[in-house]
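Q: What structure does this chain adopt?
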Amino acid sequence: MNPPNGCILGIIQNNYMKNNYLFFANRSSPWSVGVLALIQALALTGCMAGANTRFYSFASVRPSEMVPVAAARRSGVWVVGPVKLYEEIDRPQLVIRRSVSQVEISELDQWAVSLEQGISRLLIEALGTQFPGRQLAAFPWTGREPVALRISPEVRQLSVTPGGEMVLTLVWALYDPKGDRLNRLEPQSYRQAAAADIGPEQLVQGYRELLLQAVRDLAPRLKPYA
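A:
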């Protein structure tokens, strides 16, 4: 694969540094050390300048993807969040697990917003389709309308396994308006096949489908609070 245009300068500078390393190594003056540092900085800058960061987000929920469960009968806002993420994926970059011990963190493939915000928005859109007329908002809610229910997911796994599967494991917790926990559901896991060489776009699409499946399964448990 050819290097990015901006990386050509870096390759030239690196070759120059290799060919002249002995010359600079034999001179311990601050001048020679400074030149080496400058060459290294130019090489790094040249490569970075030719690489464009790509940003990803979950596509909006289409009405056809979610079946309405119940229309809103009670007043108040359903607040979604906070979304709890485990440390490995709680970062701007997309993360792909390539093996049991190898994790790929792509500096050039990042979330357009934080993953926590992206998941929260997706859940709100999905629940809004399933519960027509229900007012939903992201945590923390500071509006005047009282909170009727808070829905907080804890994502324990969201990854691609070395065996070629996408896996989502999460736990839902429901809270009353005072913040007391009403219910903590059993952990649920969702899986779908994934290519061994899966790319960032397919990864985001797959994660989205797993999250929507989790909301579909949660909806009947929320019906009594509608």
